[in-house]
Amino acid sequence: MNQSQSDRLLAYFKTGRSITSLNAFRLLGITRLAARVYDLEKQGEFIRRDRIVVKNRFNEDCHVTEYSCFPL
Length: 72
Description:
By secondary structure, the protein is of the alpha+beta class. It has one domain (5-70). It contains three helices and two strands, in the order αααββ. The chain has helices at 5-13, 21-28, 33-42, and strands at 46-55, 61-70. A hairpin with a 5-residue loop joins strand 1 (46-55) and strand 2.
């Protein structure tokens, strides 16, 4: 049976790592990370959001959200 995207994301979070939208697409095949985070929050998970600065392909600063999960 295939794992849902939310299940994959929660399993990833349980390893103690955080994730951005780009990494969610690359690593987990999730294109709508914010929607999956919302789904997990509806299930009772606490998701932390941190704004971070990353460089884009033109070496410009970009602000993105980095998500991580903490057990309740």
